[in-house]
Amino acid sequence: MIPASSYAAPDARAPLGPYHFQRRDPRPSDVVIQILWCGVCHSDIHQVRDEWGRGEFPMVPGHEIVGRVIDAGHDVKKFSPGQLVGVGCMVDSCRECPSCREGLEQFCEKGFTGTYASKDRQDGTPTQGGYSSVIVVDEAFVLRIPDNLEPAAVAPLLCAGITTYSPLRHWKIGPGSKVGVVGLGGLGHMALKLAHAFGAQVVQFTTSPSKKDDAMRLGADIVVMSNDKAAMKEHASTFDFILDTVSAPHDLNAYLQLLKRDGTMTLLGLPDTPPTVHGGALLFGRRQLAGSLIGGIAETQEMLDFCADHGIVSDIEVIAIQDINQAYERMLRSDVKYRFVIDMASLSKDTR
Ligand code: NAP
Ligand code: ZN
Ligand code: ZN
């Protein structure tokens, strides 16, 4: 077994604190990764607070992992010690169902294995995530990290990047598309950068006046304060596509009315209470309300390579692991610019 130090939530009501556990010895197709950086996703907060239910504790969150290979099982072909690699939200899937065969492991019909708060398919032990010193992952779920990008700022691409890239690709966003991004946090700022890079006209919706200038710098053509009814009305029935990244309950109808005929609004956020949708907001204009879930492994590699070609990374604030509970409080106040990334070297201060 491989000793790992980490920060974990002991239960759904307690703050995160130091926790020691064991990783498995590498199986033939496993890669052992020393974790250098881990992004902080709002899903980590939902999960450590057990807002989605069925959480197992202690829980080590973290699914935006960048690290260095330190060992590999004898069947590993793609990776070798010393290489910089990434791990996102999934560490395994059935690999046989139609979705897995199509490279859509996130929709595995038997359920994908999450990087944390899930169970290993072979031995049933709980999976533990990236707020830790080391992780062991099958090479099929490990990504190559391009060498021209800042590794700490790449970490958020492993969830926030792919979760926004995948729907923008699926709904064929490009030059001529008018795209709205709702919420300027971790996912929102990546959606903004990517939609802009795909050549779309992008309108950022925010509740935070302090983020207006940043939104323009990050690629928005227009910024709309979502509580400004007149400004919202100016955009009625004009959008091809709206990507909603908001982490808390909010009114979807106000945005549905901004879609053109046959336009689509796609939800990414997963608050614990379901939204209310007025039928009228959909049926006048044959509008569609959809959802999207992260992205498959091949598409995640495609996204990383696209970001390398276009010099796209996340705007980050690096924190020590000891600051994690405070970072969560700031995210809950929408005070994030635009992704916290944990420097895992900080673990040595109290746990290694
Ligand atoms: P985040 O960094 O905390 O950003 C969320 C943003 O939503 C905030 O910065 C804020 O933007 C806006 N917001 C927050 N509360 C609001 C409210 N009450 N009303 C209106 N706007 C509000 O979160 P994130 O990491 O981007 O994650 C966003 C959501 O996506 C979470 O629910 C997360 O679990 C989910 N998620 C889904 C997937 C997937 O595969 N579908 C993957 C990852 C995450 P402004 O300040 O600009 O208003
Ligand atoms: Zn995430
Ligand atoms: Zn499957």
What this model shows, in words?
The mean pLDDT is 97. β10, α5 and β11 form a beta-alpha-beta unit. The protein is globular. It contains eleven helices and 17 strands. The chain is of the alpha/beta class and 352 residues long. The relative contact order is 0.16. α4 crosses α5 (186-197). The chain folds into two domains: 2-159 and 313-349, Medium-chain alcohol dehydrogenases, catalytic domain (Quinone Oxidoreductase, Chain A, domain 1), CATH 3.90.180.10; 161-291, Rossmann fold (3-Layer(aba) Sandwich). 24% of the residues lie in helices and 26% in strands. Strands 3, 4, 5, 8, 9, 16 and 17 form a seven-stranded mixed beta sheet that branches. Bound molecules: NADP nicotinamide-adenine-dinucleotide phosphate and zinc ion (2 copies). The site of NADP nicotinamide-adenine-dinucleotide phosphate has 32 residues, from α1, α4 and α5.
